[in-house]
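Quick look at the format.
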Amino acid sequence: MPNPVAVVVVLTDAERAQLEAWARRPKSAQALALRSRIVLAAAEGLGNTQVAERLGVRRATARLWRGRFAEHRLDGLLDEPRPGRPRTVSDEQVEAVITRTLETAPADATHWSTRSLAAELGLSQSAVSRIWRAFGLQPHRQEAWKLSKDPLFIGKVRDVVGLYLDPPERAVVLCVDEKTQIQALDRTAPIFPMMPGVPARATHDYKRAGTSSLYAALDITTGQVIGSLHSRHRAIEFRKFLATIDKAVPADLAVHVVLDNASTHKTPAIRRWLAAHPRFTLHFTPTSSSWLNLVERWFGELTTKKLQRGTHRSVRELNTDIRNWIKTWNGNPRPYVWTKTADQILDSIARYCTRINDSGH
């Protein structure tokens, strides 16, 4: 049966100072702060009922922490270790996993898998997997990159990014490119539709029915796209597409066109057409820098949302599908917003070049 007489609490100067410090905590460890105030009130000679009323806690709570302090002093107010499975992977083992992953490779592969590294270090596969996730390590992935060797790289970046961030007045800025050799493909057997628990299934082989080339111009302000389909992609088709743009854009607006350095964009016929249409100004992206042309992002959406899993028995079907997709897009266009300045891009590339030079390769 509980002792009806409250335990007498007498504090040393050091204990009182520590309890007062804990009791003043404004944000963290509020449980410890409350326990400290209970003990300080008990040290004033108050009984458990009085302590409970003053601090707004239950009498049993006041009695518990008074007793814990009387038995274990300050350590009695700290939380005891929580129950649960003890840690099985040490800091040294975590470091070994990270070091092996980043600095070595197995004898029979280019990179570690969770199972091969687990066998090497004597850990479980799930332990290696948890460590990799915690530190963002993905040895199975590899991304590609390429640095432009264009001697005018800096000037071209500043020119194109300047158009994106501060378009000129009374002008339209269009990102132009062609997606060539789009294949009209049909599967050799019908596609099985998706069912609960079963994805759609298609044969791995297909029948080719011809190709088409899409010229597209993305308005960076509105997100609208001007598209034109052709069977080939020569300078003559590009000139026809420029004429299509000329008809689509109001005559009182200048036209700034961002495009790549393809040879079909620089032929004498194109130069003559541009001379006859002075409102057109071409802005070339640096070589090996397709990421700088926003229409490439739009081509990516066309590929993943329509072409990648589409089936077409003829080029006519393919062209009709693409035209309908462009019409749907223009019904609810979503412009891409460029945010990085030219200086930020150039600084990022400079840091990357420094990393490459410091790597010893």
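Next, a different chain entirely:
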Amino acid sequence: MSYVPMEDLLKFVPSSYKLVILASQRAIELNEGKERLVNITPKAKNSTVALAEIREGKIAYKVVKNVGKK
């Protein structure tokens, strides 16, 4: 199991809450069969892969305004 320091991750996502949401959404995508964007051991869990992708800047979040409003 690899350790991903929180300080490294918060450089890319300014809020720990947004980080958790982003990582969980990416882990779900990986679980559904999406391709990994980082070179990591095949035995790594999807949550670890998602955090590694965020740390390497391969995954980012986007703020969407006015969702559901006309």
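The chain has a mean pLDDT of 88.

See the schema section for token definitions.
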